[in-house]
Amino acid sequence: MSDLPREMEEEVLSKLPVTSLGEVRSTCKKWNSITKGHSFLKRHMGESAEGASKKKQKQRKGIEIKVVMLLEKRVSLMSVNLLYPSIEPIGNINADGVDISKIIHCDG
């Protein structure tokens, strides 16, 4: 994700639950910096408050994880339920102007 604009990385990371932030921060220095920034915290707080009731309802339905998927050259955040197998789109991530030529991992 090192070639993605910072704003897009913030958007992706802001969709993660608060309990995952420790793991995200240890992934790489850039994500550590992003998740400690004021704009990220403000965005994450908004996402958390907005989705709190929806999240509780979904958690009652089964074991759920969030994944970022590349589908037809679009970056999407998906909810995957492991107990009652299903995949539901949470939303598309604005990737206008971003050309995805290869996918790599972030080396911490």
Automatic annotation (TrEMBL):
Coiled-coil region list: none
Record-annotated F-box domain positions: 1-44
Segments of this protein annotated with the region Disordered: 42-61
InterPro entries attached to this UniProt entry: F-box-like_dom_sf, F-box_dom
Name of the protein this chain belongs to: F-box domain-containing protein
